[in-house]
Amino acid sequence: MRIWIANHYAVPPNLGGITRHYELAREWAEEEGADVTLWLSSFNHPRRTFIDAEEKREIQPVSNLHLRWIWSFPHTRNDIRRVLNMLSFAFLFLIAGLFRGRPDVLYASSPHLLTPFSGWLLAKLKRCPFVLEVRDLWPDTLIKMNGLRNRYLIKSLTWLESFLYRRADKIVVLTEYQRRFIAEKGIDREKISLIPNGIVRDSWQRDPSAKKRYRQRMGVDPGQFVALYAGAHGPANALEHVVRAGRYLPKDSAIVLIGDGPEKDRLRRIKEEESLSNVYLLDPVPKGEIYHYIDAADCGIISLADNEIFRGARPNKLFDYMYIGKPIITNVDGEVREIVEANGVGLFSGVEDPRGLAEAMEKVKRKTDEEKNALAERASQYIDRYGDRKKLAQTLFWELLSLGGVEMEKVKEAKRSG
């Protein structure tokens, strides 16, 4: 089976960013015997730099997995250059795809809708099924975050959103909220599949001797209690309140933020203006290393803005923290809070509440080793049931098979004989 995956922001694990699509592609190529092409940008969005030749050479080759790097316009902030970045990737993906052989299924992912539109057009021209993955509810997220006010642009994006929902042969969502949201627009619920984020089990091995080294890299004192945030630093992440929680922490506690984004400089200014010596802002690190940082911390933070659209979010950080077995503190009152509280893996600290975050850290600090071990076990059970990317990839693969008109028994027989 030949599968194309297109995601503007996809990256391999040796780079910082969204590894979901690379991991799905690798799983399908290695375990399912599919021939997979992943279309991704050579401009790395979190770092705002181009991926160089040396970084590409570091990527471990995988049989039947082909990486097609697409140039996209560079940008450093959310201005017209960011729009050109999106337009250039979608257009060049469309042009490059015209000169490649026909896939059995074309799988294109948001958040922005231009890449999926190019994917739909290519699927139409090549007469293959089109699968739309919804990572973010555009344009609703833009509107509710006050980032989009032009009524003509809103009308155009809303039309494009509806067009893609109706024309897709299948829609893949990451959260239950997204499934409800799309179904309420009149889309058949049977057409919508929930394939949440997850982790690749056994992709990381705990190394107790590495903890000291990674705590040193954070810059924290050896005995400090450390809460770690790892991810994007944008308006949607509401990290100002995480940084300001440093005001209310005792000297033996610290907050570490790893990542990059348009809010990073403002967060640095807040830290300096308020002399928050117990808050540390680090640059992005590769996916493989972030697990060492999480393991060296005492708990993980999930932060999003107080906005209705984010109450249905289920960020990948949720799975990363649970995979390592760390308690979670979240300020997101919605699907994340429900999962954290229902599974007993952390605390809700209140919406955009710096003092509440500091108080939650103190509660976690007081947990006994026995309580922490029980929490880690519950987290592991949740990952096994809902967050194992190998299982999720297999489930999605069989759904794609039925769309692609490939007979399942022939694929199973080919796997057995291979």
From TrEMBL:
Membrane-spanning intervals of the chain: 83-99
Keyword Membrane listed: yes
Gene3D superfamilies associated with the record: Glycogen Phosphorylase B
Domain of life: Bacteria
Pfam families, A to Z: Glyco_trans_4_4, Glycos_transf_1
Record keyword Transmembrane helix present: yes
InterPro entries: Glyco_trans_1, Glyco_trans_4-like_N
GO molecular function, one term: glycosyltransferase activity
Domain Glycosyltransferase subfamily 4-like N-terminal: 16-198
Keywords: Membrane, Transferase, Transmembrane, Transmembrane helix
Glycosyl transferase family domain: residues covered: 212-379
Identification of the protein by name: Glycosyltransferase involved in cell wall bisynthesis
Organism for this UniProt entry: Melghirimyces thermohalophilus
